[in-house]
Design goal:
The chain has a single domain, classed as Alpha-Beta Barrel (TIM Barrel). The protein has 9 helices and 11 strands. It has helices at 82-90, 93-99, 114-126, 141-147, 163-170, 175-186, 205-217, 233-238, 253-265, and strands at 4-13, 21-26, 47-49, 74-76, 78-80, 102-106, 131-135, 153-157, 191-197, 222-227, 269-272. The radius of gyration is 19 Å and the shape is globular. The relative contact order is 0.14.
């Protein structure tokens, strides 16, 4: 029986697509973005969050990480079947109906767990629950086509147009990702492009002009900007990982207005989310 590895189910979400939604976060990602606020999503395997402040140095976890009387070991990753996930989704179905909402599959990269994603999308379709998939497109086109008819909205994350920068800050080439976006457009899929705006990383005028030009080539004139935030930093410490942007501050309103003006002058309709 197919199952998926979930690290969070967020109820009453209003930032992962239209209306009120339930967001299912799947483990495993092809990218390792420097600013990722869900570092527990990157590895596909289950792992432990370790808040050092809770540790009483009893040593029991050396034998078995689950043996922690102080609760200083939090296991991340729960294996669930599509039916079990659907059961959680259906609990909030009344909110979807009243707000034109639904369910969003996010991550990580949900297409890393294609079989589970496909089966769960099918169950949602049978229940007339609107579906969205938050993806970077880091998969083959053949994999995307397997879910194309089961997804009402693709939330498509673009980090950079410049491939050199994309490789540096995410670890992967972006040729496939941009090609998949082009093919989704050609197939008439409903796509919302989202752009994480990270100060000093992908916010230069050159970066933004490249973005606007590429989107206009694809006949895309609407863009959702996701301003950089620092809410995930503590998770890096709990995972014993380095956060490479520890000195970077969150942008203020005047900064955002300046950057959005560049995009708007290029004919883009821009909204801020998050």
């Amino acid at each position: 029986m197919v199952s998926g590895r979930i690290f969070n189910i967020q109820k009453y979400s209003i930032q992962d697509g239209p209306g009120i939604r339930t967001t299912i976060f799947l483990k495993g990602c092809s990218l390792e973005c420097w600013w990722c606020h869900n570092p527990e999503s990157i590895a596909g395997e289950r792992e432990y969050l370790y808040p050092p402040s809770r540790c009483i140095e009893c040593g029991l976890c050396r034998e078995d990480p689950k043996d922690c009387p102080a609760g200083a070991r939090e296991l991340v990753g729960t294996d669930m079947t599509p039916a079990e996930v659907l059961s959680e989704i259906e609990k909030d179905q009344i909110f979807y109906q009243e707000s034109a909402g639904g369910v969003t599959f996010s991550g990580g990269e949900p297409l890393r767990q294609l079989d589970f994603l496909k089966e769960t999308l099918k169950l949602c379709r049978e229940k007339n629950i609107s579906t969205a998939v938050d993806t970077s497109g880091s998969c083959s086109w053949e994999e995307l086509t397997e879910i194309l008819g089961l997804v009402d909205l693709f939330l498509y994350d673009i980090k950079f147009i410049d491939n050199r920068k994309h490789k540096k800050y995410t670890g992967v080439d972006n040729t496939l990702l941009l090609n998949n976006l082009k093919k989704l457009q050609e197939q008439g899929a409903r796509v919302e492009v989202r752009y994480p705006l990270v100060p000093g990383i992908n916010d230069s005028q050159e970066d933004l002009l490249l973005l606007a030009d590429r989107l206009k080539e694809l006949d895309i004139f609407q863009l959702t900007v996701l301003p950089y935030h620092r809410t995930g930093i503590d998770k890096y410490r709990k995972l014993n990982r380095e956060y490479r942007l520890s000195d970077l501050n969150e942008p203020d309103l005047s900064y955002l207005e300046e950057k959005l003006e560049i995009l708007q002058e290029e004919g883009m309709s821009v909204k801020i989310e998050g």
